[in-house]
Design a protein that fits this description.
It contains 2 helices and no strands. It is an all-alpha fold.
Amino acid sequence: MRSIHLAVEVGPLQNFFPAEEYHQKYLDKNPGVYCHIPACFYEIGKNRP
């Protein structure tokens, strides 16, 4: 088995681009669609400020 070396740099976020408006509140707009996030976590996030 080969070993693979991996390096990760951790630092403050420098580039952030919000999603387009039609992606905002996607699960609210499309409640029956597939999502890989369990519903319990979605509800927790939805209620955060």
